[in-house]
Amino acid sequence: MRQIITHFTDDDLYKFTMCCAVIDNYPRTQVKYSFNDRDHTVYPPGFADAVMEQIAMLENVVITDEEIAFMRRRCSYIPAWFYSYLKGFRYDRRWVKATQDDEGHLTIEFEGCWSDTILLEVKVLAIVSELYYMMTGQLSGIDYDDYYSKSFAKAQRLIAAGCKFSDMGTRRRLSFESQDVCVKAMSDCCLSASGPGKFVGTSNVYFAMKYDLIPIGTMAHEIICAIAGMYGPLMANHIAMNVWSKTYRGALGTFLYDTYGWRIFSLNFSEDYANMFKGLRVDSGDNREQLDLIVEKYRSLHIDPLSKQIIFSNGLNVDEAIEIQNYASDKCQPSFGIGTHFTNDFPGIKPMNIVVKLVAVKITESWPFYSLTCKLSEDKGKYTGDEATVRRFMDILHIEPLPEK
Length: 405
Prior knowledge:
Layout: H1 13-25, E1 30-37, H2 47-57, H3 65-74, H4 80-88, E2 96-100, E3 106-113, H5 114-117, H6 121-135, H7 144-160, E4 164-167, H8 176-192, E5 198-202, H9 205-210, E6 214-215, H10 221-231, H11 236-248, E7 254-256, H12 262-268, H13 271-276, E8 279-282, H14 287-300, E9 309-312, H15 318-328, E10 333-338, H16 340-343, E11 354-362, E12 371-372, H17 387-397
Parallel strand pairs: 4-5, 4-10, 5-6, 7-8, 8-9, 9-10
Antiparallel strand pairs: 1-3, 1-11, 2-3, 11-12
Helix pairs in contact: 1-11, 2-6, 7-8, 10-11
C-alpha cells in the first residue's frame, strides 16, 4: 500500500508547539486519546488493518536537517533543545490500536506518554481521511488543475475583501496533493492579487517549508482538557495561560478560549493575561455573539479591542469569512483559519467529520489510575467525552444541562 505520510513536518504547527510546552511542564504525564467519527461512517472491510499498516509506516518517518533548519528560521520562539528531541523522536505503532465492529464503524485509541502521543493526532486524521477516499475509489479522476483554479479564486475573493487568512486543512484533507495544490494556488495568488487582504500562511509545517510561508498556529483544546483532567476545569484556562507564558514568554500569544465555554474563561481572563496575549481564537458558537463578548471583556479591562487579534476558525467557508470580516473589522483585528473548505471542496465528495480528542490523563506514569476529561465548547452538539464526565464537568462549571433526547 502507498505510504500516505512521508514527511515528519507534514503536520500542524500547534502539535509541535504544544509538544514543546508539554515536555517543558508535564514531561511524565500519560494520556489517552479517542477517535470520533461524528457521521458514524461505515468504513470498507479491512480499513482498520490498513490504518494500522499506515501507522507502522510512520516508524520510518524522521525529521530531516532541512526541516529543522526551516523551523529554526521560521519558528524562533521554539527553544533549541526541542529540535534535539525531534531529531531523536520515533513513532511507535504500539501507541495506537485501531479496530472495526461488525458494521464497519471505526475505533482508534492512543495511549502513552503525552509528549510522544501528542504528535499522532493530525497525522492519523490525515491518514484516515485520505485512506477512506483511496479505498472507496473516490481519489480516481480528481481534477487537480481545476482545483488549483478554484483555490486561486477563493484566495482572490478573500484578499479583495480584506481578509487575512491561513490554511488549516491538514486533518480532513482529501489528500496530500489536494492540500499541496491549495497552498500553492493561494501562495501564487498572494503574489499577484490586489486588495487589502493577505494569505498569511499554512498550519502545515511541511507545506510552509515547501512554499517558504509562515507556519501558523499556537495551541489546541487538548492542553486545557488535559490540565482540567489533572486539576479540574474551574482554573484550567488560568493554569494553561500560565504554562504557555512560562514556555513561550509572550510569543505565540493567541489563546484558544472555548474548551469549557466563554463564561468560565472570562472569569479566568484577568487584566495581566489580557494584556500579555495578543488575542483569542473563536472556534465554536455564533461568531458575532462570541466577538461581542470578547469586545465587551476587553473594554471592561480598559483594553482597546482594536489592538487585539481575533482569529475565527469555526468551520468557515469564503462567504462566511467575508461576512465576519465586514462585521468585525471596526471592532478588532480579525483573521481567519480555514480548514476543510480549502483542502476538501470537491464536487460529489463529502468531507469527513472526524476528530481525535484527549479523554483521560494521569500526572505521572507511576499513578495507578487515569482521570477522565472532556471538552464543552460553545457548540453543545460538539461536546466530546464520556457522558458521565461531561455531566460532572457541567455540574462543576454550572452549565445548564442538555435537553433530553
